[in-house]
Every structure is written in C-alpha cells, then in structure tokens.
Amino acid sequence: MDLADSMQRAGFETYEAGSADEAIRILEAHPEIAALFTDIDMPGPMNGVMLAHYVRGRWPPVRIVVVSGHVEATVAELPDDAVFIGKPFQDSELTRAIRTLDRRPH
Asked: What is the Cα–Cα distance from 89 to 106, expressed in whole angstroms?
C-alpha cells in the first residue's frame, strides 16, 4: 500500500491487514501498536467502525483514525477519541491526525 509506505517514511512502523479479523490478530501479536487506521468499508462481517469500537474496548490506549470515501462517520458513531477523515485526503492529513492523537493524554 502506498499509504503504509508513506507512514513508514513519516517514521511510523506499520502493519497491514486485509480484514478486521486480521487486524485483531496483528494487535494481539504486537501489544506495542499505538494507533489503528481503518477504512469503514472492509471485507468480512466487521466494518471499520465496528473494528474501532472493538479495539477501543480491548485496547483503550490505541489511537484510532477511521476513513471513508463513501460515508461520513459522525462523532456519535465512533468510539471515544477516534478521528474521522473523509477521502480523498493527503498523507500529511493522516500523519497530522495520528501525531495529534498521540499528544492526547492516555
């Protein structure tokens, strides 16, 4: 993914998942993960908003960014402290959002 490469160039270590189930397995295997970036539309029974809520409940410190080019998630739909970014967006917007989330108190 170009986005993963861009995030690596910005200094972030990245892991890529093709589904919510795969993302959960990666989070379980790597407790050092500090941020989740997910699209609302993803394969499988769990969409990105559902994944965001699951991650918030299981790993509360993980920072969450949800994106979509088809629907806009409202603050009420997202877990606490999650950020929504509409597509298309610049890689710099995502980098800025993650860094802003990282400065929030845990």
From this structure: 27
Q: Which of 65, 10, 61 is nearest to 37 (CA)?
A: 65
pLDDT by residue (tens digit) across 73-98?
766 789 988 988 887 777 777 777 77
Encoded tokens for 29: 């295997």
Coil vs helix vs strand at 36: strand
Residue type at 72 in one-letter notation: E
Q: Which residues contact 31 (CB under 8 A, 6 or more apart)?
A: none
Which residue type occupies 80? D
Q: Which residues, other chains included, contact 54 with Cβ-Cβ below 8 Å and sequence gap of 6+?
A: 20, 24, 46
What domains does the chain contain, in order, with CATH numbers? 2-102 (3.40.50.2300)
